[in-house]
Amino acid sequence: MKIAVIGRGGREDAIAHKISKSPRVDKLYAIPGNPGTARYAENINIAVDDFKSILDFVNAEGVDIVVPGPELPITKGIKDFLEANSKAFVFAPSAKSSFLEASKIRAKEFMKRNGVPTADFMSFENY
C-alpha cells in the first residue's frame, strides 16, 4: 500500500513515523515533509495547498491513502477534491465537516449553543 502524509510539521513527522512501522506499507511519501519525515518517507516538494500538483502526484504514483495533517488543506477541501479526482482514500473530514476546525471561535460558539462542555470564552474583534 502507498500512503502520502501531507504537511511539514511535527504532527506529520509523528504520523509518518507511526505509519512507517506498518508491514502493510510499501511506500510512504511526505508532502512536502521535513528533515524528520525524511527518516521514514520520501519527501515530495509540493505545497500543502497546491491541490492540482498533489492530485497529479497521487495519480502518477498510485497512492492508496492520503493523510492530511494541517488544517489548511482540510478546511479548503482536499478530501473532496482528491476523492473526486483520484482513487485514493483521504483520511480527513470533508470541507463541510471541518467547519469547527477552521475557526476556534466558531467551535466555541457551536459548543455553547449545543450544550457541549467547554471553558468560558470571550471573542474580540478590536484589540
Automatic annotation (TrEMBL):
A GO molecular-function descriptor: phosphoribosylamine-glycine ligase activity
Ranges where the Phosphoribosylglycinamide synthetase N-terminal domain occurs: 1-101
Catalytic EC class: ligase
Gene3D superfamilies: 3.40.50.20
One GO BP annotation of this record: purine nucleobase biosynthetic process
Keyword Ligase assigned: yes
Transmembrane spans: none
Keywords: Ligase
InterPro entries: PreATP-grasp_dom_sf (IPR016185), PRibGlycinamide_synth (IPR000115), PRibGlycinamide_synth_N (IPR020562)
One Pfam assignment: GARS_N
Top-rank lineage group of the source organism: Bacteria
EC number(s) reported in the record: 6.3.4.13
PANTHER family per UniProt: PHOSPHORIBOSYLAMINE--GLYCINE LIGASE (PTHR43472), PHOSPHORIBOSYLAMINE--GLYCINE LIGASE, CHLOROPLASTIC (PTHR43472:SF1)
Name the UniProt record assigns to this protein: Phosphoribosylamine--glycine ligase
Source species of the chain: candidate division WOR-3 bacterium
